[in-house]
Design a protein that fits this description.
The protein contains 2 helices and 12 strands, in the order H-H-E-E-E-E-E-E-E-E-E-E-E-E. Helix content is 10%, strand content 40%. With 178 residues, the protein is mainly beta.
C-alpha cells in the first residue's frame, strides 16, 4: 500500500499584503472602467465606496470634486497605497518619520516637504505613519482614486499645519467614517 498523496496547505502571509502589493491592487482596480463608473459623484463633497482589498486589507474607491482634499493626516500603523483612476491628484508629504505618539505639536525642519502629481494610472505606496495630504487641485474636474491599507485602518490622525508647525488636532476611529 502506498502512502496517500500529501498536498501542502497554501502559504498564508500572516503579515498581510506589502505596500507594493497594495499598490498593484490599487492600480489594477483604478484601471477597471466598471469599478470606476460605479462611484456616484457629488459636486459638493467627496464620495466613497468600500471595496474588497487583497489579503484582508481595507480598500476604498473615492471621488474628489474640484478643489477638495484630505487635509494633513496619517494612517497610524497601516501601510498603504493609492492610484488615480481619473483626473489628477496632488500629494504633499513629509520625508521624515515622525514619532507615532507622545506629541501634540512639532516644529518641522526645512527641506522635509515633498510634492508629487499623480495623473490617471499613476500610484503611490507608503509605509506606516506616513503623514500627507491629498488634493484635487482642478477647478473644474472630478478626480477618482483607489486606496488600500493593511492592516485595516485602526485610526486616522488629523493634523493642522501653519508653516513649519504641525499640530495634532483629532484622532478618528473607524466608526467615525464608515
Amino acid at each position: 500500500m502506498s502512502a496517500p498523496a500529501f498536498s501542502p496547505a497554501p502559504t498564508v502571509n500572516s503579515a498581510g499584503p506589502t505596500a507594493a502589493e497594495l499598490l498593484a491592487f490599487a492600480q489594477r482596480t483604478a484601471a477597471d472602467p466598471d469599478v470606476v463608473a460605479s462611484l456616484p459623484l457629488d459636486p459638493e463633497g467627496r464620495t466613497w465606496i468600500r471595496l474588497d482589498g487583497p489579503g484582508g486589507s481595507e480598500a476604498w474607491l473615492i471621488g474628489w470634486p474640484p478643489g477638495t482634499g484630505t487635509g494633513w493626516h496619517d494612517h497610524a500603523e497601516s501601510r498603504g497605497a493609492f492610484a488615480t483612476a481619473r483626473g489628477r491628484l496632488t500629494e504633499h508629504s513629509l520625508s521624515v518619520r515622525l514619532p507615532s505618539e507622545g506629541w501634540q505639536s512639532l516644529h518641522l525642519a526645512s527641506g522635509v516637504d515633498r510634492s508629487r502629481r499623480l495623473d490617471a494610472g499613476a500610484g503611490r505606496a507608503f509605509g506606516e505613519h506616513h503623514v500627507h495630504e491629498v488634493l484635487n487641485e482642478s477647478a473644474t474636474e472630478h478626480a477618482i482614486s483607489v486606496h488600500a491599507y493593511y492592516p485595516p485602518l485602526p485610526l486616522i490622525r488629523r493634523y493642522s499645519r501653519s508653516g513649519p508647525v504641525l499640530r495634532l488636532e483629532q484622532v478618528e476611529r473607524p466608526a467615525d467614517w464608515q
